Amino acid sequence: MADWKSSLFWYCLPLHSGVVEVGMDKILVLYSSRDGQTRKIVDAMLAETEGCEVVMQDLHSLPKCNLSKFKKVLIGASIRYGNFHPSLFSFIHAHHEQLEVANAAFFCVNLTARKPEKQTPQTNAYMKKFLRLSPWKPKTLGVFAGALQYSRYNWWQTRIIQLIMKITGGSTDTSKDLEFTDWEKVRGFARDFWSKR
Ligand SMILES: Cc1cc2nc3c(=O)[nH]c(=O)nc-3n(C[C@H](O)[C@H](O)[C@H](O)COP(=O)(O)O)c2cc1C
């Protein structure tokens, strides 16, 4: 096996066993994403890092991590039918003591945040819900508007999202996907967090 391939093999091995063990000065990024928008936001945030090693884990795979091994921990999760994916809280409950002392941030992604008056941690209903339910109260919080991706929804999801859009004054035109994410805000959040000591 070529050198880089064998390093990659040993690097990834602990991930397959469900336990992440890596050296210091690494960044851990955990995300919960159904249609890929949160993952896309994570990628944009990571593009703002320089010279960092990144370990990325999908929360839906129920990872177990030793957070003390990481310089920074970033967690991002989207909303579906008013809720976060249960794996978010499973992870937080299993790791909240480590999260309290880690240099860790949390952001959430939803369509409610497309409205200017609902896109701060203080005004977004889902961030408020997160803070109510989570034993970990992150010092760094972000709220980002997601995407309306009719092309990806099944029949039921399309009808439900259309209904919600009708009630909240959004688009019901299923022929067009719309992205509401403010990429400058995403990059600004990332730059602040990565540079924070
Ligand atoms: C079935 C479904 C239910 C959703 N429910 C909500 C909701 O209750 N509130 C909200 O603000 N956004 C809701 N959204 C919008 C998503 O949060 C938004 O599309 C986000 O970009 C999804 O991110 P993801 O692709 O990373 O999962 C819903 C989207 C879908 C497809």
TrEMBL record:
Q: Locate the Flavodoxin-like domain: which residues?
A: 27-197
Q: Which cofactor does it need?
A: FMN
| A single BP term in Gene Ontology | protoporphyrinogen IX biosynthetic process
Q: How does it sit in the membrane?
A: Peripheral membrane protein
An example of a Gene Ontology cellular component annotation for this protein is: plasma membrane
Give its E.C. classification number. 1.3.5.3
**Catalysed reactions, semicolon-separated:** protoporphyrinogen IX + 3 a quinone = protoporphyrin IX + 3 a quinol; protoporphyrinogen IX + 3 a menaquinone = protoporphyrin IX + 3 a menaquinol; protoporphyrinogen IX + 3 a ubiquinone = protoporphyrin IX + 3 a ubiquinol
Give the protein family. Answer: Belongs to the HemG family.
Query: What's its job?
Result: Catalyzes the 6-electron oxidation of protoporphyrinogen IX to form protoporphyrin IX; under anaerobic conditions uses menaquinone as an electron acceptor, under aerobic conditions uses ubiquinone as an electron acceptor.
Could you identify this protein by its name?
Protoporphyrinogen IX dehydrogenase [quinone]
Source organism of this protein record: Aeromonas hydrophila
